Amino acid sequence: MSGNSDTWPSEPSNQPRVPSIPLSDANLGPNGEPTIGNLVKDATASASTLFRAEIALAKAELVREAKKAGMGSGLIIVAAVLLLYASLFFFVFLGFLLAIWLPEWAAFGIVFLVLLIVAIGLILAGYLFLKKLRAPEKTIESVNELSSVIPGRGDSTGGMAHPQIPPAHDPMRS
């Protein structure tokens, strides 16, 4: 026997063949350069991975910040409730203080009127504040500009529509 024939076992013909590891990169074309299809596939996969990673990062940051905001809001609400109870005792104190110089009905009537006037003033201030609210104009403008950025939409890009998608019928032009 000559060569290596005695060291390699013979392969049975009825057994499936095991795939071998290629000696060259399967993503490269015949000239050794990556094909356009593989480059597009890699770019799409990278963009998709990057997009998912950005969403995961934003989600993690928002969850962490939402927990902090929830804790802070809870503490502020507890403090506001305690302040509400404290204000009740202050106004009772104020009524009894005025009762030293005035009849009790007049003293507590004055405290009631002061609270009523302050509440009406705060309601008017809140109403005026809410009346000054405006629509998010910059956001609306930005969203409206998206149609000019998307290929095949709008006249400003000069781009052509995707060859596989027929152009949409614009009822304003016909």
From TrEMBL:
Chain positions covered by the region annotation Disordered: 1-20, 152-174
A matching Pfam family: Phage_holin_3_6
Biased composition (Pro residues): 164-174
Organism: Gordonia phthalatica
Biased composition (Polar residues): 1-17
Superkingdom of source: Bacteria
UniProt keyword terms in alphabetical order: Membrane, Transmembrane, Transmembrane helix
Spans through the membrane: 74-101, 107-130
This protein's name: Phage holin family protein
